[in-house]
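> forwarded from #structure-qc
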């Protein structure tokens, strides 16, 4: 057993920390192995094996409890005779565990006790060795070891670290806190401390009052809840579980405060969603630091939610609603064939020449085109048409793809006429060609780094040819599309030679019937 701890504050702390590091962890491991061992010895038909297992566990528990008292400074080691006596008791207890484990290893039950018997024996031997090494501890100086040096350096640096943490906490933006405590004295005391730290503090004299405050839609939202654990009727853990089950409150950090330092209470609160657990009496500096840390975590979570909302809006702007829903549910998009879909293409007549005239004004070109595409998107939404993509000044859309449409061709004709009107009314005064075809298509998402939802098939190619062979200011239909809208649209036929399609008849829409 080491000599008595030095009397100076820093050396005292270093000595006790050294003891805790050197002895407490091995003693704790010994207890855990012994508890596993006794579960197996208790099943033995041999009474001696059963009794020995319990005695091993009791000696291990005594070792751990004694080491914890020494490390906490609860045992006075100033008297040399008492130190020698304590060292003797620790060695006796650890020695018994070693001897008992060795004896059990010679019995018929040894095979049934593997590996716990060997683990317990190894832990006890380690503990004995540590007791022997600590006999050389010099009370006039800190322990000379790498661990002791680390402890000394850490303790020396702690005051500066505490000052830095306090300064950081002072820079934490003031927040609105809800303080929940049925004890008026505690509530007023903590409220004054928090108010002095710059926070706005709302108080509730119990769990029910806190629930009413948090339910009140007219009350400003709180950034953090500081809640007592032991309260009548609605306990602190009841309030914690209620708050974490509410979608409006689950992200609000909750710090539990109690006079109970019981590990089960801490575990119950953390498991229920508490951000932290403080034991009374709480230093004002510690309270400030814990609140600052919790508020910083909340700030980062709130920022993450904002970013996630932006990502969601971006995804919804890129992909059709059905594709977004499928991706959220399955994290993949299955390619699909759609039997009856209308596809529309538009192109601005003379756009290339218009751009060439403004080759030194790229911002104006993009802004003007952006305004036109925004008008196209508004028209598409109005007619229930899904925008697929834009390529330069070309605009592609589809009807009957994401939502059922009894007549996709008619929806696209109406949308196309609005697109033509929107382009003509635009300050640039553009004329656009619009082409429409209907038929089967395949849809899917391509890419690994930059995803793209797209549509493929003959229908897409045919719609593109209708546009390229169209007339500025007109919607041009294929024969198939025209048959679907014959009762609702006036159109004139025209013969064209379309690339990849040969000679065919197209129809230029002159108006709606």
């Amino acid at each position: 057993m080491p000599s008595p701890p030095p009397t100076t504050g820093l050396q005292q702390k270093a000595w006790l920390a050294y003891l805790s590091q050197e002895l407490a962890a091995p003693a704790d491991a010994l207890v855990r192995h012994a508890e596993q061992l006794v579960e197996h010895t208790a099943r033995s038909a041999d009474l001696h094996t059963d009794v020995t297992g319990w005695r091993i566990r009791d000696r291990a528990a005594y070792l751990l409890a004694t080491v914890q008292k020494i490390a906490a400074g609860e045992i006075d080691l100033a008297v040399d005779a008492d130190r020698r006596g304590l060292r003797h008791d620790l060695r006796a207890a650890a020695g018994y565990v070693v001897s008992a484990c060795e004896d059990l290893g010679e019995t018929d039950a040894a095979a049934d006790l593997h590996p716990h018997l060997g683990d317990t024996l190894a832990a006890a031997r380690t503990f004995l060795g540590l007791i022997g090494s600590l006999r050389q501890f010099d009370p006039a100086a800190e322990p000379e070891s790498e661990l002791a040096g680390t402890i000394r350096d850490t303790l020396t640096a702690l005051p500066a670290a505490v000052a830095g943490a306090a300064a950081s906490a002072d820079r934490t933006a003031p927040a609105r806190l809800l303080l929940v405590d049925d004890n008026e004295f505690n509530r007023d005391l903590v409220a004054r401390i928090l108010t002095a730290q710059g926070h706005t503090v709302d108080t509730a004299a119990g769990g029910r009052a806190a629930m009413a405050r948090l339910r009140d839609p007219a009350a400003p939202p709180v950034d953090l809840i500081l809640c007592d654990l032991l309260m009548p009727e609605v306990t602190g853990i009841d309030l914690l579980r209620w708050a974490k089950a509410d979608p409006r409150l689950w992200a609000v950090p909750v710090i539990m405060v109690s006079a109970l330092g019981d590990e089960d209470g801490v575990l119950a609160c953390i498991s229920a969603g508490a951000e932290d657990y403080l034991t009374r009496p709480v230093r004002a500096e510690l309270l400030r630091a814990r609140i600052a840390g919790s508020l910083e975590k909340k700030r980062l979570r709130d920022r993450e939610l904002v970013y996630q909302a932006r990502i969601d809006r971006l995804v919804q702007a890129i992909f059709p609603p059905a594709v977004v829903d499928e991706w959220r549910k399955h994290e993949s998009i299955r390619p699909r064939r759609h039997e009856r879909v209308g596809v529309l293409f538009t192109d601005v007549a003379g756009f290339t020449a218009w751009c060439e005239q403004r080759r030194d004004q790229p911002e104006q070109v993009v802004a003007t085109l952006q305004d036109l595409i925004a008008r196209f998107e508004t028209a598409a939404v109005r007619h229930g048409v899904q925008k697929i993509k834009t390529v330069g000044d070309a605009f592609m859309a589809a009807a009957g793809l994401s939502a059922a449409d009894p007549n996709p061709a008619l929806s696209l004709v109406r949308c196309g006429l609005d697109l033509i009107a929107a382009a003509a009314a635009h300050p640039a005064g553009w004329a656009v060609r619009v082409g429409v075809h209907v038929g089967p298509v395949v849809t899917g998402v391509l890419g690994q780094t930059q995803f793209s939802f797209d549509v493929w098939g003959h229908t897409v190619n045919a719609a593109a040819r209708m546009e390229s062979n169209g007339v500025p200011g007109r919607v041009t239909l294929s024969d198939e599309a025209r048959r679907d809208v014959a009762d609702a649209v006036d159109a004139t036929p025209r013969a064209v030679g379309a690339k990849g399609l040969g000679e065919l008849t197209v129809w230029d829409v002159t108006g709606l019937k």
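QC bot note: The mean pLDDT is 84. The longest helix spans residues 284-318.
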